[in-house]
Amino acid sequence: MSVPGRPDRSECFDDVCVTCSDTAVAVTVLRLLDDGLAIVATGSGEEEVSVALVTAGVGDTILVHAREAIAVIAP
Questions:
Q1: Which of 6, 38, 42, 53 has the most beta carbons within 10 angstroms of its beta carbon?
Q2: Can you give the residue ranges of every domain in the chain?
């Protein structure tokens, strides 16, 4: 069943979709980019996420939900 505002399960690519499961993931900031973006280490590789809502630095552990950093949990 499709829920407005939520992606269909067919759009999810892993066993558990972070957005569908409403789970934040802890990642480590590797590099800060322009425009409030960062490259982070996920444990499965590197991804680009937004850090516009937090004050994060290289080496910080941040919580990310739907490619948006929502908290810094360890500097």
A1: 38
A2: 17-74
Q: Distance between terminal CA atoms of the chain? A: 41
Residue 26 Rama label (left phi>0; alpha psi -120 to 50; beta): beta
Q: Is 65 helix (H, G, I), strand (E, B) or coil?
A: strand
Report how many helices (DSSP H) and strands (DSSP E) the chain contains, helices first: 1, 5
Two tokens at 10?
Answer: 């067919």
Q: What is the pTM of this model?
A: 0.72
Structure confidence by residue, pLDDT tens digits, 15-69: 555 555 678 899 999 999 999 999 999 999 999 999 999 999 999 999 999 899 9
DSSP-assigned letter for residue 9 = G
